[in-house]
Amino acid sequence: MTVQPPGTGGLRGLDDVLMHAAHQAQVHGKMYLLVEKGTDGGFLIHHFISSYIRGGYKVCFLALTQSFGHYCSVAQKLGVSLQAARERGQLVVLEGLVESLRIMVGTDSQHEASPLHFLRNAQKGLMDLYLWVKGAMEPTNDAEWKGSVLIVDDLSCFSMLSVPLQAILHFVHYLRTLLCIQLQGDLVMLLATAEDCVDEEEEFLLKSLSHNSSVIVHVEGLSTGACKEIHGQMMVTSPRKPSDVQVYQYKLLDKAIQLFPRGTSSAVL
Q1: What is the dihedral of CA 86, 97, 151, 17, to 10 degrees?
Q2: What is the pTM of this model?
Q3: Which residues 6+ apart lie within 8 Å of 157 measured at CB?
Q4: Could you give the count of Cα atoms lying within 13 Å of 104 in the half-sphere of its Cβ?
Q5: How far apart are CA 186 and CA 151, in angstroms?
Q6: What are the residues whose beta carbons fall under 8 Å from the beta carbon of 100, sequence distance 6 or more?
Q7: pLDDT, tens digit, for every residue of 107-166?
Q8: Which residues lie below 8 Å from residue 87, measured CB to CB, with a gap of 6+?
């Protein structure tokens, strides 16, 4: 196992870690799988959104677990205005909480026209949502972006809403084909996994997604319990080069993320 140094620390350090893993993947269109276990991995979603917006990418964001206002507040601390990016057409957002409420109180015709129509019929699958993403990713003539990226927070919501496993796998396959192959863009997906129980479908989903990912980032809490100076552990790897594993512990600050090789924090020295 090879452990890489964390660069200059903070967000720049995390960028260095991800760039190293992406280089090992040796592909143009990359699929990042973010796996959280026993901790909140949402800070990775905030990092990716801010980095891609700042880098001049066209971003489509499926915000399924938090309000758009929440993401805007965090991004503002990182020096990025998601509202401004949305207004200029760089950011397209599906507000899952707002859209799900509209489905619950709307008319039948509104249900059928919604990309989240599966909320009324989970067996219908996620094709409507895929078609919405495809439409949002269509190139426009009024702006030239560096590339395209889709960010999903978080994929486990579909399982909790009783969407069949096969439908989720088909959805991811179509997204990967669209973003990583056709558009040569990136796909970023967060998957929350249970800490103390093993679900066969969850395990199968994780293995399937891992097999097709370019970079996998695992974040989990410390086995020794909560610590003021260390908030969790991160492991970054590429399935194309599984022997090259980067293991870090991290501390979340108000405007940055501190990374350091495992066991080198001042809290344990």
Answers
A1: 110
A2: 0.87
A3: 64, 65, 96
A4: 6
A5: 9
A6: 116, 119
A7: 555 556 788 888 887 777 899 999 999 999 987 655 688 999 999 998 999 988 889 999
A8: none
